[in-house]
Amino acid sequence: MKSGTVRMYAPEQWGSLEKFSKFYSGTFSLSGTGKRSVSGAISHFHKAVTLRDLAKKITPNLDADEEELNQHGYTHAINSKELSAVLEGVILELYSSVDCTRKVVTEIYSKYKGIPDSTRKYFQNIKKGKIDDRFPEQLILAVTEASWYAGFRMIRDELTHHDTGSCHRDRDTGKVRYMHSGINIKGKPFVIEDIFEKIEQTFSEVNQFVGRVFAYLYTQLNDEPVLQFCGIFGGRIYTRYVAPSEAIDFHSGICDARKWFDLDGNPTCIFANECGAYKNANNSIQRTS
């Protein structure tokens, strides 16, 4: 049976959140909740992407509802409800990513005044200036410039307490209209004329906010080497040590696994001949010899 090759160290493909998740242990001793919040910020965003893609895949099913309506004069709108539920899931997952991001900040700056264990109050306190003077300016700007948050939170809050909305595709434009009669805005049912456009806009806003927060937190990390998993090659796990400032591409850091795979009888790393981390390790040994 042939063993697979899985590359795990790929900093050129990581965003600021994923880079932070790989290196924060060298600086911050987060609690179990804090660690889950870091991974949660990533996983909730990825789940939102999966649900968004699923929503696009099942959108053509709306035709079945319209066909049922044309044939029988009514429709159970099953496909509309299914699409709406998936789209609502996208919104809830994106909010959870923001919530987990806030939890990480709350734990790191827990000793500062005005940092509550509530995402809503966190945004409120910062926008009202009810925050410790020592709190980082970049994290303040990430909130004050997030003008979209209040509307986003309102939708999220309503969705957690109501039934599923409905979707309808416009015959002329092809755009999908979302409506939720259980949510009232100024006495009228809540309507989004182009739900997929709104979803993409929300993705952009959340991604910018989360990325901005973790980009700042990354600058606060100690620039000391942290053990990283290179990947799994031939059924073995290979590792290297990398400092945050060095995490640029696959050639960064110093190979750690060479201490065993260079020994007689052990399989060498499949990337040894081209890996910069392996060359860096050899150069380091030569300098100290």
Question: Can you characterise this structure?
Answer:
It is a single chain. This protein is α+β, with helices and mostly antiparallel strands and 289 residues long. The protein has helices at residues 16-23, 32-58, 62-72, 78-108, 119-127, 137-144, 149-159, 195-219, 258-261, 276-288; strands at 5-7, 166-169, 176-185, 188-192, 226-233, 236-242, 254-255. Strand 5 (226-233) and strand 6 (236-242) form a beta hairpin. The longest helix has 31 residues, at 78-108.
Question: What is the fold's blueprint, element by element?
Answer:
Elements: E1 5-7, H1 16-23, H2 32-58, H3 62-72, H4 78-108, H5 119-127, H6 137-144, H7 149-159, E2 166-169, E3 176-185, E4 188-192, H8 195-219, E5 226-233, E6 236-242, E7 254-255, H9 258-261, H10 276-288
Antiparallel strand pairs: 1-5, 2-3, 3-4, 5-6, 6-7
Helix pairs in contact: 1-8, 2-4, 2-8, 4-7, 4-8, 6-8
- Using the alpha-carbon principal axes, give the shape: flat
Order of helices and strands: EHHHHHHHEEEHEEEHH
Q: Going across the biggest sheet, name each strand in turn.
A: 1-5-6-7
Number of domains: 2
Estimate what percentage of residues fall within beta strands: 5-15%
Provide a concise account of the structure shown.
With 289 residues, this protein is an alpha+beta fold. It is built from ten helices and seven strands.
Descriptors:
289 residues; alpha+beta; 2 domains; four-stranded antiparallel beta sheet; three-stranded antiparallel beta sheet
